[in-house]
Amino acid sequence: MQSNQLKEPFQYEKIPLDTIDINKERKAKNAAGTIKRIWSYLSREKFRLILVILMVLISSAMALLGPFLIGMAVDDFIVTRESTGLVTLIIWLFIVYVLHSVSIFLQNFWMVGIAQNTVHSLRKDLFYQFHRLPISYFDKRQHGELMSRITNDIDNVNNTLNQSVIQIFSSVLTLVGTVAVMLYLSPLLTVVTMSIIPAMFLGMRWITRRTGPLYKLQQNDLGEVNGYVEEIVSGQHIVKTFSQEERVIGEFKERNNNLNRSGFWALTISGFIPKVMNMLNFLSFALIALVGGLLAINGMITVGIIVIFTEYARQFTRPLNELSNQFNMLLSAIAGAERVFNVIDEKQEETDELHAKEIRETDGHIKFENVSFGYEDETILKDINFEAKPGETVAFVGHTGAGKTTIINLISRFYNYDEGNITLDGTDLKNIKRSSLRRHMAFVLQDSFLFHATIRENIRYGRLDANDEEVIRAAKDANAHDFIKKLPDGYDTLLDQEGSGISQGQKQLLTIARALLAEPSILILDEATSNIDTITEIKIQDALKRLMQGRTSFVIAHRLNTIQEADKIIMLEHGEIIEQGTHETLLDQRGNYYELYRGQLLDKAGGL
């Protein structure tokens, strides 16, 4: 059954409205607060906003004056068949509509600039926030879903600011002005015209109460689709390796159907608005024609007033129609803006202590004293004690989940320890500014990450003020220079995130060159030679020896044969240190490390 569905993943399906849970974490928690925050960005453009408001006032006044002049033409010249003064009135009518068009152009022109500057600031603040959030925040969320907030959600706000702000203000002014003039001309006919408002209000209320949650749901579903697509596109090699194409297509179909369902009903229900407004518009014209005709026959009003009321009735319902449409767009923008502000309001990485200091130089002497740490309610590390003297290499071994990576995260202060002390050269890490600490550190990870830039720029990322000679020297020390020179563009070869065009081992050599260029005092290695061919591994090991020379190094080891020369090997189990010492000392103890090492030797021998 599933395979048949997968052959047509985009087949249209009937979508019952009652299958959508529009209340489950979808409604805006604080729409008024979100609008207020959007206004705080808009208000930075006060001068241009004043100009826009002035143009809106002019355009609204001209929109009201035009029909009034047409009514005067009917009463004073057409009904009376007098042509004197008709040309002058037509000239004035021409001037009115020219002013109306020019003012609309200027208000749109200036509002586009205001909207662009507003979303520019909003996007900048969001991107700034990304770099102030703790690593744990990104570990718990899909990257594609976060990207959706800086693209789709902010674009949604931009489109709404461009279209809705002016329209809402203009519509309100037009409504107020139209009603005032209509009351002045004929209170009775005004009451007749306004008789459609209760029906209009009930219809709009029914629609908007449903479209608001649906737009919120649509934005969330869109974020989930983007996050899933980004994840699957990034992991295409894994998907194809395990032949999981049908499964991921099925999962995408489910998410796509959710987006299809929420988008379908959001647009369908909001699409009722123009239909309802047109029907009420026709009803209004019929009432004006009937009642106005009876009043004109009895001499209570003129034909020109009927013409004015007919035009004003259109102007009256059009702003209501626009307000309803713009209100839906505004709800969609609020939903997107709220998602953006949710990220901006997330708790940032803990700020440095007031007395935290910069460190210019460090010997790399790190000491753990009774350190404990936990994620939320789960304890990860318990009473950790060890010391890494300047220039020493400390390796961490243990099964998955033992706490190896957590210790590295504590050293780099990606997380703050709960109990105990971690010191660098005798100073508690919490008393050292994070940026200062990390400037003395370099990482070479198992999954090498390269930016979409040239090889030269990727290496220079280790120290941005390095010149080309220093970049080349670092590449030579990392055994990367020879393969770089063989590339068509050499150091100017453009790479993408995945490092397409070069091997995994070559990417690892580039990350080692980047670390060498940084000249760190503390080095962190996460099994940099795993899944590398023997010849490349020799090159990497040689480069790593140069990199580690004279530096305090922390190594997360999966293959024990790579850490035999470490000054200290620490074995972890369930967040506790169960053994520590040199390779020979731990083998002599014939404990857990011995069993693990012996097991790897047997596995290697079996593989041979």
Key traits:
alpha/beta, ABC transporter transmembrane region fold, Rossmann fold, 3 domains, 10 strands
Plain-language structure description:
The protein is an alpha/beta fold. It folds into three domains: 45-344, ABC transporter type 1, transmembrane domain (ABC transporter transmembrane region fold, Up-down Bundle); 364-440 and 522-534 and 546-608, P-loop containing nucleotide triphosphate hydrolases (Rossmann fold, 3-Layer(aba) Sandwich); 450-519, 3-Layer(aba) Sandwich (Rossmann fold), CATH 3.40.50. 62% of the residues lie in helices and 10% in strands. The chain is built from 21 helices and ten strands. The chain has helices at residues 2-7, 31-42, 46-78, 86-130, 135-139, 143-185, 187-194, 197-234, 236-241, 245-270, 272-297, 303-344, 404-411, 434-439, 455-460, 468-477, 481-486, 504-518, 534-548, 583-589, 592-607; strands at 366-375, 378-388, 393-397, 419-424, 427-428, 441-444, 522-526, 552-556, 568-573, 576-581. The strands form two sheets. Strands 6-7-8-3-9-10 form a six-stranded mixed beta sheet, sandwiched between helices. It has a four-stranded antiparallel beta sheet with strand order 2-1-4-5, covered by helices on one side. A hairpin with a 2-residue loop joins strand 9 and strand 10. Helix 4 packs antiparallel against helix 6, helix 16 packs across helix 18 (504-518) and helix 18 packs parallel to helix 19. It starts with a helix and ends with a helix. Residues 1-27 have low confidence and may be disordered.
